Here is the input.
Amino acid sequence: MSLKRKDLLSLAPLSVDEIKLVLDTADSFKEVTGREIKKVPALRGKTVVNLFFEPSTRTRTSFELAAKRLSADVINFSPSSSSVVKGETLLDTARNIEAMQADIIVLRHSSAGAAETLARGVKSSVINAGDGWHEHPTQALLDLYTIRERGLGFEGLRVAIVGDVSHSRVARSNIYALTKLGAEVRLVGPPTMMPWGVERLGVKVYSNMDEGLCGVNVIMMLRLQLERQGRALFPTIREYARLYGLTAERVKLADSGAIVMHPGPINRGVEIAPDVADSLSSVILDQVANGVAVRMGILYLMSGAG
Amino acid sequence: MTAYGKGDSSSVKPILIKGGQVIDPGRFVGIGDVLIDQGKIAAVGANLPAPAGCPTIQAMGSLVLPGFVDLHVHFREPGFEYKETIQSGSAAAVAGGFTTVCCMPNTNPINDNQAVTEFILERARVAGLANVLPVGAITKGSEGKELAEIGDLRRSGCVAISDDGRPVMNSLVMRRAMEYARAFDLTVVDHCEDLHLAEGGCMNEGLISTELGLPGIPAAAEDVMVARNLSLSELTGARLHLAHISTAGSVRMVREAKARGIRVTAEACPHHFTLTEEVVRGYNTHAKMNPPLRTWDDVHAIKEGLRDGTIDVIATDHAPHATQEKQQDFTEAPFGIVGLETALALTLGLVEEGVLSLEQAVTKLTSAPAVAFGLKKGTLAVGADADVAIVDQHTQWEVDPSKFRSKSRNTPFAGWKIKGQVKTTIVGGRVVFEAGSSER
Here is the structure.
């Protein structure tokens, strides 16, 4: 079985079966990442291009490792050293890469819709590694994988996503996927950080964090973009941390077996207290580890090798 | 007045337009003939005798209308000739039945002085197609700080003032501009947008912007500036024209202001009464314009405003952009679409829908815009400049951007089948466009 899609741009259109297929495929690759020789020949002869227009260490490295462990040839292409600064459009850049027979292009871009625009213009498969505030589907898939790995079922699962939802692609992808899988999704944050009409996506919105965390099974913290202070979204980091920072006290409001997630990079002492980030309930590093396996699964499915 | 930068039309031959359905808003509606002589309307009536040797245009079954007046176009010259020139823009205008167009000052350099105004008028004269009437800037460089030399702009031929696209945010500056413009009885035009509320936005703020993760422009960004401008117009007594209103809130406020006697006129664009924000899905850059496409509620309000007269004018906001600019990703692509060659058919769509009577629709394309800017245009009154559009109301055609006279192709209506086509356009008594004899 394989994903019957040329591209992975968004989780909004994915079916429950497709999501489960990705998670199951990732399971078999998770086993590979635990071996002494962490490599399989599944994508030998295929070329994966990481096209990252925004700085990213974690996601790019994760994709690179995933592709290498599948024996694909990997090229990293970042704009600072490229023709992009010479004014070439995204589409032209991508067509050039395609002309070099890239099978899969992994795109990170600051503009929502960039992956969709690209996918329409090239024959290569496009994987969205984050487009503006829109979606970050592979992050959400690895989040789902991590939740499932902890033995939590999705149906009826209570998940609180805390922070700046407006500007978060991670939040959007998780909202689409989790609601589809039957979870109860709560968004927690100041109203300045909630996008217009988001309740209509089937979520509940809380501006009081304590209420929002009450009885949840998963606490998913979002990174506070510190540079947004001064944009009238929140008065001070101090007040934000007091109102929406995850402390050990607040974790106690959640279900006793609740897990704490964060897509990283974390601001210790801002959205998450250091002792919480390092606690047993924190699965932040599992997310990173699972990211490689999940991306192996996605690359494998997208390559048509399945 | 030197503003109508046309060549000498008094030497052109007379023309008799026979047997069409003449709609001269508020003046004559019925089957009749229109006689043109010396570049002016010489007579309108039934069975006019043809002067000896006078060429005749058979218009049976067609509408014979005053040439359309578009208060809102961007012809991009000087500075952005790769998008449009006054020549290509004028060709698009007359192909769409527009005989008079008012071009916004956001060129490079900005039309904030006599030299640029004169340049535009000269290029229009050389093009020799439509009457191109410049709109001057309100402030120097459209920076919203110091008033432009509005007296000079008026004297050299500007017909209104606006900082279109870069609205005057400082309310004191806007107040002074309105007061000052009264000295010349110039209409002050504002693109109503609070730049702080709209900052970074690229589509309507609503459920779709939430889903697509695109920064939104709330309806309030328009509404608060409409409210401000109406207050300032009331304070100063200035003649105010609101460009391209797009929200239900704007319509409501303008309706109320008119009832209180404030001197305000308002325009709406065909895309704002035809499309909603839904069209943005798929990150379609041809659905990116400013103000953005809004919701169905707003579309209904715009239509109701057009129907009840709250919105006086239909204008295109013709905003050409090169293909490569619209091929950028959605947030990077520039705002705007071309509109001159689709406006008539989309307006006639409102007639077919029963929103407007045919005469109302014609009024909003002709006499109403002329009144808003105080132009002696948009009429078939005897003695008026012979600017005429002959229109086939019912022919359906498919929008093919590659056939546009405009240099640019940025339209969301490509492939649409719409009804209503211009057959002949006459400016100053000269035939400047005939359907079929089309070369680009």
